[in-house]
Amino acid sequence: MKGRIPRSFIDDLLARADIVELIDSYVPLKKAGRNYQACCPFHNEKTPSFSVAPDKQFYHCFGCGAHGNAISFLMEYERLEFPEAIEELANFYKLEVPREEGSRPSRPAPNKAQLEDDYSLMENVTRFFSHQLKHHSKGSEAIEYLKNRGLTGEVVKAFGIGYAPPEWDAVLSQFGKSTGAKQQLLALKLVNQNDNGRQYDFFRERIMFPIRDKRGRVIGFGGRIMAGDGPKYLNSPETRIFHKGSELYGLYQAKQNHRKLEKVIIVEGYMDVVSLAQFGIDYAVASLGTATTPEHVQQLFRNTKEIVCCYDGDRAGREAAWRALENALPHLKDGCQIKFLFLPDGEDPDTLVRQIGKEEFESRLTQAKPLSQFFFDNLVEQYRAGSLEEKAALKAAALPLLEKVPGEQTKKMLLQQLARFTGEQDQVRSQQDIEAANNAQKTKFVEYKTPATVKQSPIRMMIRLLLAQPSIASECLEITDTAIAQLSEPGSDLLVDLWRESVNTPDAHGSQIVERFREHPNFRHLSKLLVEEMPEKDRVKEYRACFATLINSHIKSRMDTLLAKSQVATLTLEEKQELVALSRAGAK
Fold this sequence. Notes:
By secondary structure, this protein is α+β, with helices and mostly antiparallel strands.
């Protein structure tokens, strides 16, 4: 099992990360003063209350309370464990995550060890198929097939394409050497079992395309038949690590090739993705034997602002395009585009790019139909919109679909286009707009902002000051952790811990410091304090003033205690000396 991720790497990663850039790749942000805002991705809302502060490298939702740094965002948004979020963030910046050797790894989450073992097995099976392509007696036939399809050795290697041999137990005999191993092969659908209990390989005599998730782990396979009967493609069934409705073949490779994907092409087959990549069009993906799902669209819009759906021009292709459009509408935010490119009869991206080359193929991509054009072309063809009745039918069909569009400007322009088709002078309004107008007198706009400042205790204020400017601890070395601890004030233990981290990393920003407290019992409390706005003033002077207030309060409290004791008992010599010293200190 892998060792721990070094703390120094996590600090460096957060220092490198730009939380605005990261979150904007998932949720489009708009500038709002010195911060950025959006509708919160963690709960449904109409008015933006999700704020991202570039100076703090922190986000906070004033609606639901969600808050955190870049790592926290990935954990919440992608539902990742902490180490997985580190790896995802590192991958975003093309960094490799180091591991400490000989360290004791943290206790795995339930089933995590099993999942890691699953990914390891799938990777080993991928290597096995690659080896069979080169060394099996029939591997030469598979190589010849790939050459006839025009694939080079470089692109075959880049996508890890292999060969499943014809033997019924090639994978089973190689990897199923124990009862537990056989059960794992069955669970991952690498092996089947018939009614008689006989077990045999799921993939046999096929070109094998390993399917990788967004982190590059093999989660399933697509097998392409070379000749003979049987389905053209055979895909891995659903397993505990493979859910085809939310995965896209080639997305991992596309992200590896492009730091920022300007556009992504959705095609239908594995061979289309590989062939386009060979011609330098290395930003294509394929759905895994399913229509383009809402999950596919949502995942792509996290990585790009433009999707081009590339389908056959026949009836089946247009029906598939319409399903993709319907699934895309609920995720069509302002600034995002979906286009549709329909290919000539009998052509697919694989064959077409070999005929016309990269430049002409990409030229056709620029001429793809925008969603709005395909949407209304399809509806007008169906309803004609010649008579009043046909226009009413078109409107009745279009409005429920346009209601789903979350982008305000996009929806507005689509409704304006609908108005032109129906011949209405006024813009067609969505049901949401109508309800908003009807409730205008009842609804008050709530402006989300930092809560009103409340009276701060000196300890709380010193914590906030260190979070806002960790270097203060090094600038005020007369205020030590020992001095703070002796005050015995509520919260002083937390302030001591924070002081020590701040002294050790004076150049860090607040979110880096807070990250070091992820396992601390006061992590959530610190995170909330980081959210609070800190006025731009002399923070060092304020920090010293707070500590002076604490000292004075401590002196007064101790003097009161000793004086009260002297009324009922005789003070010891040490207590008398302490009272005199406290009196002199208080008089200064």
